[in-house]
Protein 1
Amino acid sequence: MTTRSKEDYLKNIYHIQEEGGKVNTGSLASALSISPASVSEMVNKLSKEGLIDNKPYHGFELTSGGRKISLNLIRKHRLLEVFLQEHLQYEWDQVHEEAEKLEHVCSDMFINKLEEYLGFPKFDPHGDPIPDKELNLAPTHFKLLQNAEPGKEYVIAKVKDSSIEILQYLTKIGIKLNSKITLTEKIDFDGSVVIIAEGRKNLLSKIMAEQLFVAG
């Protein structure tokens, strides 16, 4: 039986892998805000259960079984986020923490019915693709705002870091998912960008620009 703790480990390993990072004791301890010793103990358990491949000095990665569990949990999480925002009027900076609590207690049957009730959404409130019933992800063709061409109009398609602080700041300056923006300038000196959103000009730092994916 997969416990909540094991599910959280597998989900975080998946996220680190998807972002191109090396999954090791240090990166996982940082993601989960726990000690490296605790990570090592759980990694050994997951390896013995065939959920991860642990390669000394090379980190570890999910097996097909571990990937299936992590994607199923991500599916639950993202569908719950959609429900919370669309039907309970949660803001996009509030849905993540609530879904973190609910994802572990919802059955597959409930989630399948919830998906149908919601109209089979493809993306969550932050622009991340939602795995379908077979755990397939919809293809995305987004690009980082920093890599976009100035002088053109784009649509905000995804926010990479869904931390409360970043989402609240974006809301403050009039940016949300599917917002139309115009990229007017890219400043090479410090990597910041100038955009127009809701008729207002805003200067976004390099850190902020690296969090936004656009389409168009």
Protein 2
Amino acid sequence: MTNSSIAHIASSFFDALFDTDRPKALSVINRAIGRNIAPEDLVFSVVLPGIERMTDSMVDTEKTNLSQHFIASQICEEVIDLLLPLFSGAPSFQGTVILGTSSGDFHGLGKKIVRGCLRSSLFSVVDLGINVTAERFVEEAVSQKAAIIGVSSMMVHTALSDQGPRRVRQLLHERGLEERIKLVVGGAPYKFDPELYRTVGADAWGENGMEAVRVITRLLGAQKP
């Protein structure tokens, strides 16, 4: 594989993501597989840079919108599911993340974008869906041996609710899990008040899908001896 060939594949894949053209994106990847491009190279040099560029285009230049980013993240998830079984060895996941929207919150779009970005970055994600109780977040984290709980809240009252992230923090404290399991939050209320994550007891917050990946990667790195 030459740098020019992988760059061409990456460019074609990003164009498909930008246009939210699923058939074209899958065609680009399948043609690359047919040319014996290593699936590992496709993940790290094509898929991950593609979703990063989509995030940058939305945040920095506002050339893409939330719905485009959502569809792109779903395409990337599908491509990851296609490529992982083709790895030469068992893929090494960065860690397990328990993901869901807070109790009383029924908005799932942002969470799905984060899930797509995490899976594209080789995190194992357990998506609990919407309206998830604090107890279930913690129980699943313990059961799955996860180091991260990610709670999405799209409304101020669900972010500040006593049954939301605050309750997750309380349970982690009561069970002596605060050093082992970190709490990350995200959603519209935190964009309006970047210090809100401290108010609800979270360890960090992610402004968008790829920022969530960076924050979680940083937290996991800090936990390693």
Protein 3
Amino acid sequence: MPVDLYCHIVAPFCRSVILLADALEVELNFIEVNVLKKEQFKPEFLAINPQHCIPTLVDGEVVVWESNAILMYLAEKYGKEGKRYYPTDIGERAKVNRLLFFQLGTLHRALSTYYYPILAGIGEGKPEDFRKIQDAVCVLNKLLDGNKWLAGEELTIADFSVVISVASLEGVIKFDLTVYKNVYRWYQQCKKEFGKFEELTQEANEKSQEMIAAVRQYKLEEINSAKEPCCSASGGKTPPPKPPCPDSS
């Protein structure tokens, strides 16, 4: 029975889940969620994921969101001999977990901070933010010194997670990976190892221009809306406070 994946191909974290599912031979039922059209706020999706983020995975009664949590779940449930991708040894697993936190909290955060003004069409990335990207890639380069894969000699979910951020560096901001010999070698290796990598990357790149235009329009509308007096819609009166979440009591 297919596993439902609520996602959008342009969203990089969705692609890491697709790559792992393909490696584990897990059949996915793709349900596209366009966040720029605010489809994540539809009642039927909020009923599944009140955090309204993608990717979100539904496997029977199990619902998981946050991409790295999904990678853990898929590897735990569907991993098999020769394709576990998530070590059972607690020390080796700690290495993988550390890399997952690094991917989200350091590498991709640095990329997002630098690229957001460019994406939104409101300015250029700051040199100090670009330096943070360089520092993060330097860390990766050091970790790969003498290692075939990020956590050692075995392919793990850390590689599936980090490779998408590195692909964004190359594709989105044209970051020169050749300067970082270990990272470049590992990245080329990932392209060969992950069967759907090139296909997914090409599809994402083709759709990204449309998405960028939509993001910039969305940001422009947001800026124009912010210029309006906060009381303009209420006849000069301060609007009532936003009600709490239904389950806050």
Protein 4
Amino acid sequence: MERPKVSCRDCSTTESIVWSKCPATSQSDSVAYICNDCYVTNLIKKKKEAVNLRNRVEVKQEPKVAVRKSARIRSIKSFSSTPRTPKAAFVPKVINYKAPDPVLVPTNSERVLCNNMFFSRGDIVCIQDENKTLYAQLRGFLTDQYTSKSAVITWLIPTKDSPPPNERFDPSTYTIGFEEDTPRPLSSMSFVMHAPSAFYMIKHHSHAPYHGDPFKAYLPKL
């Protein structure tokens, strides 16, 4: 005997794994059927509606807390009619410490390094002073706490046989001058040639005159 075909009440499908009975939509039908998919969908909707209904009931049952207004609370305008100006931001005071003045100390070394060049005691240097080219001999070195190099010099005085200072330097035509005690920065001097520290002392010393070849007493510029 063939089973009568049924259709779903909600989606009107005729194929389903499991059929469930449900109330009929019309008075003529005594029993109606729904498919398995519609049954699961309706079950999920009913659970969501029950949860929402329970949440609404709990919210309605929360008691209201009475808030008492204090008589001490007053408006800000009642205290002062003028608006308050904002306070300035706090800025810490910066203390600037001044570096101490340089203190020159004599150096016992026979040579010092300045501007990537070694200067030795007795070297001939060139100094530009008011567009004039002057020559001097290094007598000693000094340095300070900032590693700045200075030197004391002995001036060399040209003679009639000396060539123009701007062109070249001939040590045999210069004579020793006065010694300057004020240190000068070594960076302001230009190297000319190496020479012994007693080169001019030998020629002009009264007790030990030197009558030899003057070119043997110094080293020419390389």
